[in-house]
Model the fold of this input.
Amino acid sequence: MVALCRPIADTSPMPMAGVEGPDHIVCYVNAAFCLLTGKSSEALVGNAFSTAVPTGGECMALLARVHQTGKAEIHTGQEHPASHRFYWSYVMWPVLAADGRRRAGIMIQVTETTPFLLQSTSMNQALIKASMHQHELTEEAERLNEELQRANDDLKQFAFAASHDLQEPLRMITSYSQLLVKGYRGQLVGEPAVCVDFITKGAKHMRDLLADLLSYTETGEDREEADESIDLNTIFEKVTQNLKTAIEESSAIVTSGDLPSVRGHDARFVQLFQNLIGNAIKYHGETPPRITVSAEQRNSEWCFAVSDNGIGIESEYYQTIFGVFKRLHGNTVPGTGIGLAICQRVVTRCGGRIWVESQVGLGTTFYFTLPMGGGNR
Amino acid sequence: MSGAAEVQTFQILLVEDNAADIYLFREALKAAGLNFELTVIENGADGLAFARRQGEYAASSVPDLAVLDLNLPKSGGASVLAAMRQSKDLERVPVFIMSSSASAREQARARELGVERFITKPPDLEEFLQIGHVVREMLLKSPA
Done:
């Protein structure tokens, strides 16, 4: 058996041992086996395999099976001797004598699996941790999503209240103050006339605010249907048509370069361009307004510019003007202050940005970006 | 203007819960110079009872025109309209919807059920008073 083992096992880096007979007496060990067990060849050879190495019953049962059946066995389960805290796995196979018929003994090859096991355990633990973290993150994302959904629902309810429930009492105030004026025609003079006038104007202003607020909240409502390719040249034509009276009255010149097509909702782009061009007309300077609309490609998006030669905006108000109901001109110029808030909402809903650059007395340019992908020019 | 409107007294039914609008509606009819008897029902449940000719409404006279508000307590104006369209006595009564809501969906639904006019209550008094003239036109046009 020893002579059979030597040529194969002596130089093998894998720990190997040979055993003989029903008691599995160790007859051969290679250097790697000695290194693994920490015992010399002399201490091992001549002893039963069960006493030579710290193995468990499972390994010995396996050895008995190979002895009985003459078939190779692989023991993938790890032995776990409590005193050593390391893990081995075994491959055992019968070795035939030179005549090729008689059984000479059993060869045992041992692999230390401790590092693999520890590694796999720590990997398992890391995996468990990661999956727990992932789970927590998912739960957090779900929670945030629900919160957002709730906030959105609240906003929708508010919009509905603003459009219907709040309009009703307002209509009463308007109609009945008018009825009062009508009923007391000629008699309502001085202070009472002034009071009723304020009531009427206040109610009208509130009506405009509510209508605009509704329009603002509706701007965010049509995301799903908003996936058509929109030719902004057509939108520009439509907007200048809508603003025809204001353009004629102010002798404004409104021009546009070639505009691209973008994805979105046409009514929202009308709102966007109409508010920007409308503002440019409204806040004109001494000379008739000259307004130009242009677009250029920057990286993967379109950058638009709406420029005018109007009164301009001081830099400290560059952010404020995009707020809901924020106005810089009081009652001298009509409006509710929702226009730019709507513009911002339209642009950000499309995944773009909007900002302003201005020089007081010279003019203002509103810039906004929109993602490309609406077709070619 | 036809003289018939001044002579004949029209039976008008108004299903409306808002007292201020009932008052304004009456003013509008007066402003249009109509002779009218106005029956007011102030909630949807009574409106339904009227449309189905039940209870105290079993023997009510058939109006020349019905004006319905859509947003009513208990049961909406659309249900009242639907019930009227299923009633032998009332199916031919011209109906005029006067609502505070201008939702396109509601308007479409009302038109499906057959209404002659759909008006969103105007916030301006003069416009509201014009409703009287609309009513007058509808009454003079109807075969009854």
The longest strand of chain A covers residues 103-112. The mean pLDDT of chain A is 84.
